[in-house]
Design brief:
The protein is mainly beta.
């Protein structure tokens, strides 16, 4: 009997850890939050549990893994006006908590986004208020060097607000909400050089904020904060062209709104975006041959001001960080239709970034 109980206990222990994966949460620390939190997410049930403080930090508002997932990088807002914003590297310890490795100046104000290249050798930081973009070399021990390149997007007649950036092979794309453009840089002789300050011309003042790139690099989906819209861009042989433009709002919604984040489903058949104001996640069905999208759902986030959201590693759930209501909402994904169903929400102080 003892042997049977021991085997049962071992299987239960194995299943728990097989189904649970860590979720790290970046926050603003002006209120009740103390830094980066860690929770366990059950990929079978969609349950979140075991909330712990992974490390104390000053407003770690956006997070990114290293290529080997041994380290986490964060942009940090300075605690006082006399300090500058900075970027931090953390080592993931065996128990899931984080240990500080080092920090480097962000070379800008309101640092809001960080991304790591696939080889794990470069980090790029977007600084919203100053309109600068900073590039950092990453060492083998996970530490950061001081910025190797700094791009200033400001013009005499137009203020830049760099909001996000991503690497794709030898390209570096930057969404600039202030200049209403997505910039393209290319890697040449160990440095990134500007290729174009606008991959497509955007009419009016849409405010491109975040974007996602299809796996083959052929399509870029840009979510526009001011325009409450998604601009679909196709890469041709030598340039880019806009092929679609869609509203993120329900046709019956007439209030104010500011879009935030955007992600493709694991199979790239669906596209998701977050609406702050309507407080919803919008769902689009994607034509995988043409790249165009069609709206199929707007669903409440069961909270206020959904900033960042993410899909879990299995692609079966969407988790949403509701900054103003201090909660994370969990949704299941219908893998056939792509539509979402609300499951439950969990209290977390001022969540703004979710990292699996």
């Amino acid at each position: 009997m003892k042997s049977i109980l021991l085997i049962f206990a071992s299987l239960s222990f194995f299943n728990f850890y097989a189904q649970n994966t860590p979720l790290y949460v970046g926050t603003y620390t002006a209120g009740d939050s103390e830094g980066i939190y860690k929770l366990e997410f059950n990929t079978e049930t969609g349950e979140l549990s075991n909330k712990t403080l992974a490390i104390k930090a000053s407003s770690p508002t956006f997070l990114s893994y290293s290529a080997d997932r041994k380290y986490i990088y964060a942009v940090n807002r300075a605690e006082t006006g006399t300090e500058g914003d900075y970027v931090s590297s953390y080592k993931i310890l065996d128990n899931g908590t984080l240990a500080n490795i080092n920090s480097a100046k962000a070379h800008g104000t309101a640092a809001c986004h960080i991304s790591i290249d696939k080889k794990g050798k470069k980090a790029v930081v977007s600084n919203y208020t100053s309109g600068t973009v900073s590039l950092f070399d990453i060492n083998k021990d996970g530490s950061l060097n001081e910025a190797s390149q700094i791009f200033d997007h400001n013009a005499a007649s137009e203020k830049s607000h760099a909001h996000s950036a991503q690497f794709y092979k030898k390209d570096l794309f930057v969404a600039d909400l202030g200049r209403n453009a997505v910039y393209q840089y290319q890697l040449k002789e160990d440095a990134y050089k500007l290729k174009t300050s606008a991959i497509v011309e955007m009419e009016g003042n849409p405010g491109p904020r975040h974007f996602c790139i299809s796996k083959n690099g052929k399509y870029i989906y840009i979510i526009n904060e001011h325009g409450s819209s998604i601009t679909t861009v196709k890469r041709t042989k030598n340039k880019f062209e806009q092929i679609d433009h869609d509203s993120t709002l329900d046709e019956n919604y007439n209030g104010k709104n500011a879009c935030a984040d955007i992600h493709l489903s694991k199979d790239e058949r669906f596209l998701y975006g977050s609406n702050r104001g309507e407080n919803s996640i919008v769902v689009f069905k994607r034509n995988t041959k043409t790249g165009t999208i069609d709206k199929i759902q707007n669903i409440s986030v069961h909270g206020d001001w959904p900033r960042n959201f993410t899909l879990d590693p299995t692609g079966k759930f969407v988790l949403v960080a509701n900054r103003r209501s201090n909660n994370i909402a969990v949704f299941s994904i219908d893998l056939v239709s792509g539509k979402l169903t609300f499951l439950k929400d969990y209290a977390v102080p001022t969540p703004v970034c979710l990292l699996f």
